[in-house]
Amino acid sequence: MPRNRSNGTPRDGLPGAGMGKEEQLHQYQARPEDELLTTNQGVRIPHTDDSLKAGERGPTLMEDFHFREKITHFDHERIPERVVHARGSGAHGYFQVYESLADLTSASFLQDPNKKTPVFVRFSTVLGSRGSADTVRDVRGFATKFYTDEGVFDLVGNNIPVFFIQDAIKFPDIIHAGKPEPHHEIPQAATAHDTFWDFICLMPESMHVIMWALSDRAIPRSYRMMEGFGVHTFRLVNAERTSHFVKFHWKPLLGVHSLVWDEAQQLAGKDPDYHRRDLWEAIQQGDYPEYEFGIQVLNEEDEHKFPFDILDATKIWPEELIPVRRVGKMTLNRNPENFFAETEQVAFHIGHLVPGIDVTDDPLLQGRLFSYLDTQLLRLGGPNFAEIPINKSVAPVRNNQRDGFHRAQIDHGRTAYFPNTLGLGCPALAAPADGYVHFPEPVEGVKIRRRSEKFKDYFSQARLFYRSLSEPEQRHLIDAARFELGRVESPVVRQRMIAMLDLVDRELATRVAERIGVEPPTGEGVEIRDAAGEALQRREVKAEKGRAVEVSPALSQMNTVKGSIQSRRVAVLLGQGFEGEQFVALKTRLEEGGAHPDVISLALGVVKASDGTPVPVDKSSQVAASVLYDAVCIPGGAEHVQALSELDEVDVFLCEAFRHGKPIGVVAEAQELLPPNVKGPGVIVGGSDLAGFVEQFVAAIGQHRFPEREGARGGVGNSRR
Ligand code: HDE
Q1: Is 82 in the pocket of ligand 1 (CB under 6 A)?
Q2: pTM of the predicted model over 0.70
Q3: CB-ligand 1 contact for 140 (6 Å cutoff)
Q4: What are the tens digits of pLDDT across the range 688-702?
Q5: Are 8 and 22 in contact (CB under 8 A)?
Q6: Of the residues 89, 372, 379, 388, which should be mutated to test ligand 1's pocket, given the most ligand atoms within 8 Å of the CB?
Q7: Which residue ranges in the chain fall short of pLDDT 70?
Q8: pLDDT of residue 24
Q9: What is the C-alpha separation between 96 and 111, in angstroms, rounded?
C-alpha cells in the first residue's frame, strides 16, 4: 500500500474504529504506517500545532522545514481559474453505442454496443468566477472527455446549439463585454449590464443565440435536465474514407426542464451550489444522469442545399429537416473523489480527436483549435498536463516529447528523436489505417478577411426559435429581455436593442420596449449594420419545403419528455399530529416513482403522527424553502394543520410554490392552509379518495410546472402583457 494515501481518518476495521473521538485522536502509535502525517519528503511529523520557536514566547525559527513547506504549499494552492467556464461541476461515467456506426465512422468507441467507454463530463456556466452562483442566466458548458482505446476524444459543447459570434477572432470581445465591467468589477456572472448589451446591439449575428439565452434554456432546473450540443459541424469519416457532415447532440432522458426566473434568483442566494449539489446528490442516491447521444447526418453533396451555411455556428439544422438519430447513451454514475484533482484540472480541447472524427472549416471551430491547447499551458503550468490522471489517455502514450514543468513520466533510453537506429526505430509510425489521418478536403482560395455571403442571414433562425416557443415560453423570454435591458443605463443601447429585436419580431420588440423606457419600434430611426457595414432590413425568409421550416416543435420545451417523477424533490410539511396513514401513502408512492420526499417541520428531530408514530424530520422550516423543491404536499390532521397555520414559513412556502407554477397537494384539513388565490391547475386537493389524490399529485409532478398559473395575483417577474 503506498504511503501518504490517507488523511488519517479512522475507518471501520482500522485502529481507532469503535473508540470515542478523544481516544481515537490519541491512537497515533497504533496506526498503520500509511495513516501517519508526513512531510512531502515522507518524513513523519509528530507535532503540527506549534511552529518551532526559540523559547515558548520566542520568535519562529527559519529551520522549521515542516512549517515552511506547509505554508509554502498553501501559498501556491491556487491555479488560474478558467478565463471562461470557471464555475463547473464534474462526474464520471461511461458511454455505449446502441449499434455499430461503422457505415459512418471508424472511431472504435462507436463500433461495438458491448464496449463501455469511460467518460468524464464537466458542466459549467460561462461568465461567472469559480465561486459564483449556479443558477444565473447563462449558457451552460457541457464538455465530455471520452477515454477511448484509440486515445482521448473531447466533445466540448454547450446546452445551447448556437453561438454568439461567427468567427473566433471576436471571442475576446464578446467575453470582455459580458464579464464584470473593468472599472468596478460589477456585476458578477450576469449579462444584465451595459457593456454586454452595448456589444450585442452592434452584433446582428448574435441575435439567434440571444433568443436562446433569454429563454428558459438559460436557467435549467438541473444539469441532468438539459440538452447538450457540439454546436459546430463536424465530420464522421469511415474506414473507406467517406466523410459525412454531422452535428452532435446529447438528449437527457429526464427531458429538458427549467427553473423560473424568480426562483433562479432566489436560489442564487439560498443555495448558490444548487446545480452542483443536485448533480452530486443525484449520483450519490443512484439517480444516474443519462443522456442519449444523437447525430444529425448530412451527405457531402447536400452541403449547399440549405439556406444557412453549415459552417456557420450561429445556425441550427432544424430537426424536422434533418432528424436526430439517437445512437448511444452516456450514464454518469460516479462522483469525483477530489474536486481540484479532477474537475478543476481536467483539460478539454476541441483538437483532442480520434480517427474517424474530424473537424470542418467553421471559422469559430478553427479558432478554438488554437485556444484550448494554449489556455492549458498557462492554467495547468506547462506542456505536461496530459499526464495529470484526469487527463491521461487510457491508450498508451509514446513519443519523443520530453521534459518541461512537472514531467511525471520517466522516459527511458538515449533517443528522443525520429528517425533513429539507436532506439531500434521506436516509437515507430502507425499504419495509416490505424492512425489519425486528416480528411483530405480540397482547399483553395485567396487570403481574405471576410465571411461567406450565406453567413449573413442573421434573423431567420432567431425568428424561427421565437415563433416555435409556446405562449408561456415567449412570455418568459420577453420578461427576461425586459429584465436584462431594464438594467442597462444607456438609453442609446436600449433603443438599438429594440431595433435589433424588431428585425426578429415586431411584437416581441414592442412588448419589450413598453417596459424599458424607449420608443416602440418603427423600423426607422436606428440603422442596424453588420460587420461588413451593410445596412440590414426587416425581411421574412419564406420557408421552402425540405430546405427550411416556419416552426420547429423540437425547439419548445413544452414538447419535452414528461410524466416521470424520477429524482424529483418533494417537500412534505408536517406539524405534530398529522394523519399518519395519509403521510405514509404519499411517501410510499413518491418513493416508488423515484422521487425524494423530505419531511419539513418546525424543528429538527422527530415529528409525531396523530397515533404517536414518530417520523424523522429532514429539514427545519428555517432551512428549507420552496425554491429547493419541485413540489410541496401537506397531509391532513387538525392539530398539525393548526400548528402549521401558526408558521409564517408555511404561508411563504405555499405562495412561492404557487407563483413558481409548482404542484401543490393538500389533504382534508390542510386545504385551510392554502392562501385565497392559491388554486387552479396543479393545485390538488384530496378528500376521502386518498389513492386517487396521490395519483393526481404524482401526475402533476410529472408535468414539472404549470405556467398557466403565472401572472395570477402574487406572480413575480411574470406578466401577462
Ligand atoms: Fe470555449 N473556451 N471557446 N466554447 N468552452 C474554454 O478553455 C474558446 C466556445 C466551452 O469544462 C477555454 O480550458 C474560444 C463554443 C466549454 O473545462 C478557452 C471560442 C463552445 C468550455 C475557450 C470558444 C465552447 C470552454 C477556457 C470561440 C460550445 C469549458 C478554459 C471560438 C461549442 C470546458 C479552457 C471545461 C472553455 C476558448 C467558443 C464551449 C479559453 C476562443 C462555441 C464547455 O480555451
Answers
A1: yes
A2: yes
A3: no
A4: 999 999 999 999 999
A5: no
A6: 372
A7: 1-29, 539-543, 711-721
A8: 60
A9: 9
CA distance 520 to 516: 10
Q: Is 208 helix (H, G, I), strand (E, B) or coil?
A: helix
Give the pLDDT confidence of 504-549 residue by residue, as tens digits. Answer: 999 999 999 999 999 999 988 888 888 788 888 776 666 677 888 9
Q: How many residues does the chain have?
A: 721
Orientation angle between helical segments 648-659 and 261-270, nearest 10 degrees:
140
**From residue 618, how far is each of 162, 291, 314, 577, 585 by CA, in Å?**
42, 30, 46, 17, 18
Distance, in Å, from the CA atom of 118 to the CA atom of 394, rounded to the nearest integer, reads 9
Euclidean distance between CA atoms 313 and 319, whole angstroms: 16
Q: State the catalytic residue, choosing from 66, 92, 158, 275.
A: 158
**Could you give the CA distance from residue 637 to residue 601 in angstroms, rounded to a whole number?**
14
Q: Are 576 and 607 in contact (CB under 8 A)?
A: yes
Contact yes or no for 600/620 (Cβ under 8 A): yes
* Residue located nearest, by CA, to atom 9 of ligand 1: 368
Cβ–Cβ under 8 Å, residues 540 and 466: no
| pLDDT one-digit tens code per residue, 453-510 | 999 999 999 999 999 999 999 999 999 999 999 999 999 999 999 999 999 999 999 9
Euclidean distance between CA atoms 292 and 249, whole angstroms: 8
Q: Is the CB of 84 under 6 A from ligand 1?
A: yes
Indicate the helix (H) or strand (E) that contains 657: helix 648-659
Ligand 1 pocket mutation, candidates 122, 234, 275, 348, criterion most atoms within 8 A of CB: 348
Determine the pLDDT at residue 15. Answer: 44
Q: Is 391 an annotated catalytic residue?
A: no
Angle 328-333-339 from CA coordinates, rounded to 5°: 120
Contacts of 538 (CB under 8 A, 6+ apart): 502, 503, 506, 523
The reported pLDDT for the residue numbered 546 is 83
Tell me the DSSP string of 304-355.
Answer: TSSSS-TT-TT----TTTSPPEEEEEEEEEE--S-IIIIIIT----TT---T
Peptide bond into 419 cis (omega under 30): yes
What is the SS3 string spanning 516-541? CCCCCCCCCCCCCECCCCCECCCCCC
Using a 10 angstrom Cβ sphere, with 0-12 exposed, 13-18 middle and 19 or more buried, the burial of residue 541 is: middle
Task: State how far the Cα of 117 lies from the Cα of 110, in Å rounded to an integer.
Answer: 9
| 158 catalytic residue (yes or no) | yes
